[in-house]
Amino acid sequence: MILHTLTATFGCLNNSTLELQEGLNLIQAPNESGKSTWLAFLRSMLYGLPTRERGALADKNRYIPWNGAAMSGRMELTDGAQELVLVRDTVHGGTPMGRFYAAYAGTATQVEGMTGQNAGERLTGVPRAVFERSAFIRQNALSIDQDAELEKRIAALISSGDETTSYLETEKRLRTALNRRRHNQTGLLPRIEAEIAALRQSLTQLHTLQQESDQARLQARCAGEAAEMAAQKLALHDRMDEIEAKRAFFAAKAELTQTEKEAAAQKAQLEADHIPPPQQLMRIKFNAANLLTTQVSMNHVQSQAEEAKKQTAIARDAVDAAPFTATPEEAAAQVRAVSEHYRALQKHTAPSLPLTAVLTAAAAAALAGAAYGLGQPYWITLAAAALPILCGFLRTRNRRRAQELADALLAPYGVQAPEDLEPLLTDYNTIYNVWVHRQENEAQINASWQTFYQTYKKLSAEILEETSSFCPDLENVHQVSPLLEAGLRRWRQLQTLETRAGQLRERCSALRSRLPDEAPLSAAEEALQRPAESRADLEAFLTQSRDQQQEARSRCDRCEGEMAAIGDRLEVAAQLESLEAARSQAQEEYDALALALEELDRANTDLQTRFSPVLGRRAGEIFHTLTGGRYQHVLLDRTLHPAAEDTTAIPRSAALLSQGAADQLYLALRLAISELVLPADKQIPFILDDTLTNFDEARCAAALDFLCAEAARRQILLFTCQSREAVYLQNRKNVHIITLRETGWR
After folding, report:
1. Among 2, 78, 272, 404, which has the highest number of CB atoms less than 10 A from its own CB?
2. What is the pLDDT, as a whole number, of residue 162?
3. How far is CA 261 from CA 128, 254, 255, 494, 501, in A?
């Protein structure tokens, strides 16, 4: 079989194509470039997706296309001489890759008998498990195990037995059959013995269940009778409720008629007495209350006005007692004038007397001297001498006169100096302002009283006007409150009657809805009486009785169900007899299977003894080539665990080898198994995924040389994340290097 073209919409692959050729295909792909996805796609195209896997890591979930498209793929290959095309896709709502199509290339002719379930085995000649453990080699999966399919084919190569016969399968079947009969506490024999014990116990249970069922049936019947009696008494309660509702209805209807009559009479009397509606009465009552409040306020304001008048008079007396008679501004001007006049008069009293006398005497002396020197008469000299005395007298008199005038200016104010006028002026300002303020306050209070008075007059007029219809003789508005209360009381009585009438109508309507008719009660109905038990007690008793009845029925049904599950007594006895016979037969079969398993194990030991050298010899040849002749042989025990023998002829377990040598050993073993197990006529391609990663340069070169030689017989797909393989195989014949670009794939 040769693979040619793979086209995938699978995981990170979006309609991606991989072209392959015969020989060695080196697929160089860095990590995260889709290498693992191509390998999973190849397996899925051959064998389909595993349907039993669960969880996020199952292939059907792990490889959902990233672009949201349906999972699909196409594979072109050569099988013998036939060119085939395989197609798998996903039907909406179906199994991923569940729809399969196989046809001959270039035609529409389908391959007969090839289905999605058998395609891989028909093309490779081996089941999925054998394919994955032989031709499909991964880096971390070089070790092998005793898979049943793999062991079956290996055994066929080293023995003359049937290829379809497997020791593991046969041993498994025998041990399964043996375990089915007896395995510790499980198996056919313990089950039969347990069933025998159970059947014997069932006979006892049937008798006990029958007694319990009969008792439960009796309890159910008694509870049902008690429930029926309680239901009848509850029905009587319902009938009495209906009768009492009728009585209440007739009583309410009669009361309603009487109430409506009283309400109509009350309303007619109100209209006859011209009593205004309640809203108007309340408005008049409100105005009357406002009138009373206004009167109280008016009286209070009047008292304030009288007090304000007294205070104003007191302030006026204080102003009148002051030395000033004008406004504070005019008084200030008066004070300034007096002060200026006083200072002017004070100028006539200066300078002082000693200085004036000296000047006058000096002038007189000069004059006398002049007169004497001129030879004037004596009297003239005497007159000149008297002149100073005269002048001094006159000046003294003038000064005294000026002082008297100045004192006269200050006398009305009772002060000695002009400076003393300022405090008097300040006090006058205060007294005058108090008087003005009290005048204003008095005016405001009088205005307020006038407002209250006008309001009082207006409210009085409105009350008299609105009450004229029902009390025309009203003279004192303060007498209206009792009349208003009387009117409102009559309206409230009417409202009470109307409210009661409305309640009675609703009650009559509610009671009427509960009655089948309005027919009067019959004598028999009048004679009925309620049960002695209350409704609550009867309902509780009814519920309890029905619960007991249901519980008893359930218990009876349970007993009958358990008896039906156990079966008829005769049938149970027959089963017991049959099981005892089956136990004897099963014991005989168990003994025979144990003997057969013992003989099979002996035969398998012999088979493995002959098989191991065959596989070890071929693996040794390959291992010898891969290691450059360092190791000569490969030895395998009956569990297929390998060991290597070097030139020292000392076997070394694979666990004791270096990582590189161990990888070479397992690769050799896998290649040998593939040659021995895989059908020779199919020439299935070898698929290696990073198998040489842990190989050093020399080991890698040896492995590549071997694969190049092997590629002459079959197609090989070598996936690698390194570049050394491509460098080493460059320009090799029958080698094709393919590079996958990193695109964020996984």
Report:
1. 2
2. 43
3. 105, 11, 10, 11, 10
Secondary structure (3-state) at 28? strand
Neighbour tally for 515: CB within 10 Å: 14
pLDDT in tens, 93-108: 788 898 999 999 988 8
Q: Decide if 609 contacts 598 (C-beta within 8 A).
A: no
Enumerate helices (H) and strands (E) in the chain, giving the number of each: 19, 13
What are the beta bridge partners of residue 403?
none
Work out the end-to-end distance of the chain between its first and last CA atoms, rounded to an integer number of angstroms.
Answer: 28
Buried b (16+ CB within 10 A) or exposed e, 346-371: eeebeeeeeebbeebbeebeebbeeb
Residue 479 has pLDDT above 70, yes or no: no
The answer to whether the beta carbons of residues 213 and 562 sit under 8 Å apart is no
d(CA 18, CA 264): 107
Distance CA 499, CA 648 (A): 125
Q: 23: which residues sit within 8 A by CB, 6+ positions away?
A: 711, 712, 715, 716, 734, 735, 736
How far is the C-alpha of 27 from the C-alpha of 721, rounded, in Å?
A: 9
| CA 457, 460, 464, 465 torsion-angle sign | positive
Strand, helix or coil at 266? Answer: helix
- Tell me what the mean pLDDT of segment 538-548 comes to: 91
pLDDT given for residue 325 in this prediction: 77
* 423 contacts 417 by C-beta, under 8 angstroms: no
- 267 — pLDDT class (breaks 50, 70, 90): confident
Query: Which bin fits 488, alpha (ψ -120 to 50), beta or left (φ > 0)?
Result: alpha
Residues comprising the chain, all counted: 746
Is residue 710 within 8 Å of 626, Cβ to Cβ?
no
Can you say whether the dihedral through the CA atoms of 123, 129, 130, 131 is positive or negative? positive
Q: Residue 95 is encoded by which pair of tokens?
A: 């199994």
By mean pLDDT, which of 14-18, 43-47, 353-357, 467-471 is the weakest? 353-357
Coil vs helix vs strand at 305: helix
- Residue 310 CB coordination number (10 Å): 12
Global confidence as pTM: 0.45
The angle, 0 to 180 degrees and rounded to 10, between the axes of the packed helices 188-272 and 569-626 is 110
Give pLDDT, residue 383.
63
Cα separations in angstroms, 250 against 247, 255, 263: 5, 9, 20
Spatial CB neighbours of 696, under 8 Å, sequence gap ≥ 6: 660
The edge-to-edge listing of strands for the beta sheet with 631-636 is 631-636, 642-646, 651-653
Residue 415: helix, strand or coil by DSSP? coil
CB 473 within 8 A of CB 326: no
- List Cα–Cα distances, 388 to 215, 441, 459, 463, 671, in angstroms: 170, 68, 94, 100, 172
Question: With the C-alpha atoms ordered 33, 39, 44, 45, is the resulting torsion angle positive or negative?
Answer: positive
Q: How would you label 132-145 residue by residue, b for 16+ Cβ within 10 Å and e otherwise? A: bbbbbbebeebebe
Q: Which amino acid is at 155?
A: A
Per-residue pLDDT at 160: 38
3-state secondary structure 94-107: CCCCCEEEEEECCC
Please give the DSSP secondary-structure letter assigned to residue 186: B
**Strand, helix or coil for residue 739:** strand
Contacting residues for 403 by C-beta, under 8 A, at least 6 apart: 345, 349
Task: State what percent of residues in the chain have pLDDT above 70.
Answer: 85
